[in-house]
Fold each of these.
Amino acid sequence: MSDNCLFCKIVRGEIPVDKLYEDDEILVFRDIAPQAPVHFLVIPKKHVNSPATLAAEDEQLMGRIMRIGCEIAKQEGIDQFRAVLNNGEQAGQTVFHLHVHILGGRNMSWPPG
Ligand code: 5GP
Ligand code: ZN
């Protein structure tokens, strides 16, 4: 837990979100500024700064994050989607608590901008 981290505040229930899934380790909620018809975030409840700061002990947690993200995508009716992990400001990371974006429901272009 990190006192001033936005997503830690969400985990603690201090900021309301549209929650799609929760267990001991993971929280899934809709992005406040959706970039696609379906856009949600999958986060670990424990504070991890960014993908690059994942520890060896987080390997299983990261696997669960991906698997649950795919399950919720199915539940949300998107069997085709994009999963995005931004690492660092240059890549577009604005919240420094690891999160996987899942976006779907529209055509996606490649490469990303
Ligand atoms: P990043 O740019 O770090 O990869 O993604 C952060 C995401 O968090 C953005 O898509 C942004 O819209 C979302 N976000 C920021 N603040 C809030 C909030 O208070 N509630 C929710 N649900 N999403 C947020
Ligand atoms: Zn945090």
Amino acid sequence: MYEPRVLSGMRPTGALHLGHYHGVLRNWARLQNEYPCLFFVADWHALTTNYDEPGSIEKNSWDMVIDWLAAGIDPSQSTLFIQSQVPEHAELHLLLSMITPLGWLERVPTYKDQQEKLTEKDLSTYGFLGYPLLQSADILIYRANMVPVGEDQVPHVEFTREIARRFNHLYGREAGFEDKAKAAVKKMGSKKARLFNELRTKFLEQGDDEALGSARALLDEQQNLSRGDRERLFGWLEGSGKKILVEPDALLTAASRMPGLDGQKMSKSYGNTVTLREDADSVTKKIRTMPTDPARVKRTDPGNPENCPVWQLHQVYSDDVRRQWVQTGCTSAGIGCLECKQPVIESVLAEQAPMRERAQAYLDDPTLVKNIIADGCEKARKLAGETMREVREAMGLASS
Ligand code: TRP
Ligand code: SF4
């Protein structure tokens, strides 16, 4: 239904690391080849938890955009922008807050989880409670139907679907809906109109899901219908009102397999990361000093790769031949640990080389980044404005 559109956001929390690259960014880079994509810096979301230390948000935002560009997010394919520069998100957030039951927000699992986890912060604020609703506004304002997120964010997408449904239920019932829908059907031409009505009846009277699918496909083909008419007909088809806001689906991003330097999952809070554009000396030093199988006290002691975090990196970076070399060399004490680490170091540096190179152009000339974001914000504002016009009208507010 509707044009496919992907949207995702990330909070600006500091330099991104290889876990972000293997988990999120490569996925975004792939999606941008398949669909129109919008990716944004969720700086307002960063404020919900970091309102007491806002000093780093702006710098982190620009650095993060450079990390995205370095990782291959291509501004000629994807629209990149910063949330706080598209104030329409805040307007939709406010309007949606009118219809959002407090209990729905209190029941979102991240609300209590984060409050318990971040005990050093006072998160009993209005802004933090509204975190998922702000996220809903981010998604709904672009009528994005695909939202790539990690598992922890799936409840927020589910919540967004419920908000969209509630909104459409409350405000999709415009005066004269039935007549407007019937007039819209006529615009399809008599043959298609008859087919559409037959399929609709089949679905509404017999619950025929196949008929529903065919009717939707038929609507998708109708280039000559206005957006308003399409919204009416998608709703009328299912016996409901106009579908002004689109219910999104989460595109679950497979959890990153990227191990950190200590064998735990790579994460800033574990202090075991290699950042995307970390300099070569630092990367080399970090890997050379990584812990290995504790059984290998002396060079002549055989080891077991299963007990070694370096082996996990070989599983990400090495082919079968090299993995066999590790297995044999480690268990027979035929290779030393530094020897074993060397190809990992080289692979990481090789992966980072094009990223460092792409980033350099933006570091040399920051106006390039500013222009990319200015363009992206303009595109985003235009799309957001179209939705807001309909939302304001549906909620009985004056429009200019
Ligand atoms: N809450 C998301 C996170 O922490 C970031 C985010 C904000 C987001 N708005 C969004 C993700 C909209 C997807 C869609 O990762
Ligand atoms: Fe780990 Fe390699 Fe040393 Fe074996 S040889 S303990 S796999 S670093």
